[in-house]
Write a structure and sequence with these properties.
By secondary structure, this protein is mostly helical. The protein has a domain of 81 residues. The protein is globular and about 40 Å long.
Length: 116
Amino acid sequence: MRLLIFVVGILASTISISADLPQTVGVGSTSCSSWNKIKSKPEYEFYAVVWLQGFISGVNTSEYLSKGRLRNIHGKEYSYYANALSSFCGSPKNAHRSLSSVAMDILLASEEIAPQ
């Protein structure tokens, strides 16, 4: 488990918790407008939400390891993230945004907590 946390931290270490994201590839680079066209297929939604959960977990872990900051993402189920993704990408003002950018907004909407 510690190895997994270490690897996730290393992979996410280049990502800042600011609104400015580095370039991404894969699922994270998909625009909301593209996502809205394919999200009705359950397998696409599943992969995107699982990716979203991993991305958010990785950034949260990286922030904790590098800056001691932590967001409360515990206890939020698959449906929470599926609904959040649909809500953020469903807004016309977000059509041009990438899923990575939307993922950061979802993470930042979570309460900051004191690490234990």
